[in-house]
Amino acid sequence: MTQAIGIDIGGTGIKGALVDLDSGELVSERVKRATPAGGRPADVVATVAEIADELGAEALDSVGVCFPAIVLDGHTMSAANVSDEWIGLNADRLFADALGRDIHFVNDADAAGYAEARYGAAAGQPGLTIVTTLGTGIGSAFIYNGVLVPNTELGHLELDGADVETWAANSIRERDELSFAVWAERLQRFYSHVEFLFSPDLFVVGGGVSKHHEEFLPLLRLRTPIVPATLRNNAGLMGAAALAHRHG
């Protein structure tokens, strides 16, 4: 059994677990902590170190951490629902120093997308799979024949004069109390545009709202098959763990 630790940092919570990379199953209980108020780097790094210690990171070769930001060469170039102090930081080195070991650091949507392609709804899918996460914003991941193409940020595509996530994210549906039918019209605009630009072979839709997929996915009219994600809240940490082992 090949194992690695995956840790998923979010705006409200941080969770980690030990992952069996052969089966894609968790082999420990998830360890969860609230994201420290303000989401400042030192506080978040300290919390991640606590989780890694509890999971026994010192005994494993691979630890992956995913984070809600554009990640370039281990640096966080944006910040979503955490402190702006992250912007421009060498986060890979911060976490490596705190954990006393090398880690692999990756965008959270990319990690979730990679997990769905390896273990979930897109397992074995050839060609281009586009995984989108519908939540506070809209995250995305491109997987081409099993290879991750990082930092796609489709939620920031500008359509009709504004970033798509400002009018089509699930948080907007909840805020404006939109029916699923009305929200699906907005999603149709988004997915039709992405389909035209990239001609994917499969769309996978994640985020917490994916558990209600029967309320809105059947309303979309696309050439590309579109299916719900299957790994739910474990996708990020599973993908972080798998990518850490791959790049280790």
Written description of the protein model:
The protein has 248 residues and is of the alpha/beta class. It has 7 helices and 16 strands. Strands 1, 2, 3, 4, 5 and 9 form a 6-stranded mixed β-sheet that branches. Strands 12-11-10-15-16 form a 5-stranded mixed β-sheet, with helices on one face. A 3-stranded antiparallel β-sheet has the order 6-7-8. A hairpin with a 4-residue loop joins strand 2 (13-20) and strand 3 (25-26). The longest helix has 19 residues, at 180-198.
Overall structural class, as computed from helix and strand content, comes to alpha/beta
The whole-angstrom Rg is 17 Å
N-to-C order of helices and strands:
EEEEHEEEEHEHEEEEEHHHEEH
Q: Which bin fits the share of residues in helices? A: 25-40%
**Percent strand:** 25-35%
What is the overall pLDDT average?
94
Distance between the termini: 16 Å
Helical stretch count? 7
Q: How many β strands by DSSP?
A: 16
Which parts are unreliable, with pLDDT below 50 for 5 consecutive residues or more?
none
Shape: globular
| Largest sheet: number of strands, sense, barrel closure | 6 strands, mixed
Condensed summary:
With 248 residues, this protein is α/β, with parallel strands linked by helices. It has helices spanning 41-54, 91-99, 108-119, 165-168, 170-175, 180-198, 235-247; strands spanning 3-9, 13-20, 25-26, 31-34, 63-67, 71-72, 75-76, 89-90, 104-107, 128-134, 138-144, 147-149, 158-159, 162-163, 202-206, 226-228.
Question: How is this fold's topology laid out?
Answer:
Blueprint: E1 3-9, E2 13-20, E3 25-26, E4 31-34, H1 41-54, E5 63-67, E6 71-72, E7 75-76, E8 89-90, H2 91-99, E9 104-107, H3 108-119, E10 128-134, E11 138-144, E12 147-149, E13 158-159, E14 162-163, H4 165-168, H5 170-175, H6 180-198, E15 202-206, E16 226-228, H7 235-247
Parallel strand pairs: 1-5, 5-9, 10-15, 15-16
Antiparallel strand pairs: 1-2, 2-3, 2-4, 6-7, 7-8, 10-11, 11-12, 13-14
